[in-house]
Amino acid sequence: MTSRTTPVGPPPAGAAVFDPAAEAARATAAILDSTLHGTARGVVVDSPPGAGKSTLVVRAARELAAAGESLMIVAQTNAQVDDLADRLATADPELPIGRLHGTDSPPDPVLDRHPALAKSSAVADLRDRAVVLATAAKWAYVKDTEPWRHAIVDEAYQMRSDALLQVAGLFERALFVGDPGQLDPFSIVGAEQWAGLAYDPSASAVVTLLAHNPGLPQHRLPVSWRLPASAAPLVSRAFYPYTPFRSGTAPGERRLSFGVAGDGAGPDRVLDEAAESGWGLLELPARHTPRTDPEAVRAVAQVVRRLLDRGGVTYSGTDAGPVPLTADRIAVGTAHRDQAAAVRGALAALGVPTGAAGGVAVDTANRLQGREFDVTVVLHPLSGRPDATAFHLETGRLCVLASRHRHACIVVCRAGVAELLDEHPSSEPVQLGVTVKFPDGWEANHAVLAHLAEHRVAWRP
Amino acid sequence: MSVLHTLARAEAVAAGRAVPAATVLHRRLSARPLVLVLLTTAGEAGAPLGALAGTDRDAPELLVVPQPLDRDLRFGFFAGLAGIVLPLLDACAERTETEPATRNREETELCADALQIVVPNAATVDYLRLVGRSTRFLRTAEDPDAPYPVPAPLPLLGRWLTHYAERARTPGSSLLVAMTDLLSRHWTTGQSALEDQHLGSLLGWIDPPPGLDGAAAAARAETGRTPDGLLVSPPAGPATDPRFDNRVLAPALTRYDAARAAGSGVAAAEAAVRRLVASQLRPVWDDVWHGLDLLRALPEGAHVEERWKRDRWSFTGHRDRVVAGEPPQPRRDDAIAAAQKLAGRETAQARLAAQEALDDPLALAARRLAGEAFTGVVRDVEMAFSDGRRPMPRPLVTLDTGDLPQAEPGARVYRAVPEARSAQPADLVSVEAAPGAPGVPDAADAAVNGCRITVRLTGGMGNGKAPREGSVPAPGDRVTFTLFEHDPRGGPALPDQEATPWTHGGPPGALAVPDAPDPVTAEDHL
């Protein structure tokens, strides 16, 4: 979608010595310069997974506040807003922050520890605050108030154009930050009749913004601090072919090892492969299954169980000490909610805790978006399916699932997905005036599969 | 496709006929709908060939264009259509009732009924949209500058068709409905959703003729031909059967052209074309009425009347815009209008899904299977009160259910209480696997034994210290809670058109003036 992005600084790929910290600092400086001193009403920042987007938002917010500008921050979910507010208050405890929230959705109690942070469901109570944060849905109810000088719109690629339409009157200028590779916003009813219009209400906010304001400065963050050296090249190639990024760590810096030797069964072998290479594919025999494929679900649960039983330890850098791999650092990603529920059930049956309080995070791609873990176990969206629909082929879904990990990603899948893809070439109708998104999900799926095939462990449970 | 739907399709295959997908009728069926069957000409985009239209199943009006490439005849056809549709619209527009004032609205006039148009399939809805688009900007003889004036009622017909076709995109609306959509909502066949778009084959599954099972009846409807090579069950339009076009229609059109050129025998040639077109239309016409008969055997869902009232509001609103002399609908929605429509339709979709589940145990079953609702028997009710100066009843209700709701404790759930105006809210307190096989704390067992769920009722119990009579379920009662709201509301109002922000191109400005009529192009003079 954003192949028009202009790279900042020299292309990292050709540089003899790549200094990730210097590259990232250069990009950040350029972004802050555009935001604080530029003349354009909007600045767009594309951020690949784990490239320090939240850090950038916090930094930009502090600098704008320090310059005496009034600032509002728009994020998409209450969890994101709470997280940003917490980070901002932690980074700058003196900063007067306002957290605007809905009457039915009180903010996370964790914010109570910041004395300079005020909470209210009425914007009038927060007008004196240097920074006010709320979800786009809450901002949409704010009317008849003096516009803010500045806004930061976080996760702007996941915001729908009509949501931006509702809040754009509240600010004069804005910094739009987001990851173009993740899941696109969606609508529960058909919106084809507006496809191709610049202001298609179901499109992403950034697409609409750039269609109407083609000259806006666009930046991107060039370094993923989350993805290890084993993952960044694949994710960059498969999902960001025209805006490549690099890993902030060198090969071998991030390590995963186990205190207990493998028992030779499929789950242990795939764990060893993933510890060695950062990727693992546990391939079950080909079969058409219901969505909650019991065998695949059990295999996912067993992999997680063994991850914990084998005393996994992670090393985040060459000189970093070992950190035990605990349940809260593991995520299981699925395409559907019923699959997530089935995995939770299977994990509970193996005695593995799940959920927010220190357990394994088991959720759909939509809900794992923006989160980070040490190891992820993914139930492949196309596993066992007789068809490949647009939903299951969506580029962003696979991208989210394949880019949440700091150390290793293990994919559980039935054999035959490559053939399934070949039987279902993308057949979405071409809409006039719609920017074709590259890569399409079909191609991205093939790219990831081809890479995973090198780390394949076939297993018949 | 939900699990229940997949199962129903499998059952239909096994049974050899469609199985019910609903226990009630989820759309309004007017007592006197206007049924419209349309055919177009192959190779000429949007050119009508013929139509059967009317509210009386035994006496449809036949409209035929004996030479579809002749523009005068085409506009004559549309004028004929307008002559059927507009009087029916006027009749509905004139009969009004008074809506009492509410907090947000003054006393208003509301049309007592709206004209319902029933067409065979979704492709016909699209065609009506196209007709609306192509006629609403046309200039009539009333405009002295119009180089090629069309009959006066045409633009008005175009505006109404545009409104109907646009309204048809609102989930749950019944102003303009496609029979294939209606039937496939209420029955599940043993064929794919794509095949269900064939009216004849769909009816074959639902009501196979004696001696045939659903699959055979569907196959006959799709491919069966009479000895002269024509389809037994002609396409429901707007496209025609190519073999009919080539073998039968084309020679008849040629004869009509020849007769016109010769200046003799025109009436006979035209009658021949009319007979041929009627032979293709009549079976479809009968199919649509057959579908109406099948649907009318179902009792109407409880919330259908409420949704139909929204259709009447929509109808009344358009009537008022026409009466006020407003220009026709613009070619494209502006940013605000598009966002408004999308938001309205999303609310309508959520409302429809909720209301269908409340009206129909089969629709609810699909939601229960998806973990979006749970039905169970109340085991225990423990009275509790809220903290605060005036303690309010907040009873804890524990129930056993075979369902597996996909929600975390703390989630809001809703219960429909008979006679109450709105749903009773409650908070999910805990979800535990029901004690099944002793000693096995196995959550996977929940799938077998179900769950024990505790909720705290938080409202709908009146203002007193004691809950209102009947507002708290008693042990042994069978209750259903849903994770979805029963009456979802729309979001905040959008900005005015003049306040369209810079991110969306700013106010429409020049576009605010009404669209000029379509420019005359070379194609207009073929």
Topology:
The complex is a heterodimer of chains A (461) and B (526).
Chain A: H1 20-37, E1 42-46, H2 53-66, E2 71-75, H3 78-91, E3 97-100, E4 117-120, E5 131-135, H4 136-139, E6 148-153, H5 161-167, E7 171-178, H6 205-212, E8 218-220, E9 223-224, H7 232-239, E10 246-247, E11 255-258, H8 266-277, E12 279-284, H9 294-309, E13 312-315, E14 323-324, E15 330-334, H10 337-349, E16 361-364, H11 365-368, E17 373-379, H12 390-393, H13 395-401, E18 405-414, H14 417-423, H15 441-453, E19 456-458
Helix pairs in contact in A: 1-2, 2-3, 5-6, 7-15, 8-9, 9-10
Chain B: H1 3-15, E1 19-20, E2 34-40, E3 48-54, E4 61-64, H2 71-94, E5 96-99, E6 108-111, E7 117-119, H3 122-135, H4 154-167, E8 176-178, H5 179-186, E9 187-188, H6 199-206, H7 214-223, H8 242-262, H9 266-296, H10 304-323, H11 335-359, H12 361-369, E10 373-382, E11 396-401, E12 412-415, E13 424-433, H13 446-449, E14 451-457, E15 478-482
Parallel strand pairs in B: 2-7, 7-8
Antiparallel strand pairs in B: 1-9, 2-3, 3-4, 5-6, 10-11, 10-15, 11-14, 12-13, 12-15, 13-14
Helix pairs in contact in B: 3-4, 4-10, 5-6, 5-9, 6-7, 8-9, 11-12
In total, the number of domains of chain B comes to 2
Mean pLDDT of chain A: 89
Question: What would the principal axes of the Cα set say about the shape of chain A?
Answer: globular
Strand content of chain A: 15-25%
Low-confidence stretches of chain B: 437-446
List keywords for this structure.
heterodimer, A: 461 residues, alpha/beta, 8-stranded parallel β-sheet, 6-stranded parallel β-sheet, disordered N terminus, B: 526 residues, alpha+beta, Elongation Factor Tu (Ef-tu), domain 3, 2 domains, 6-stranded antiparallel barrel, 5-stranded mixed β-sheet
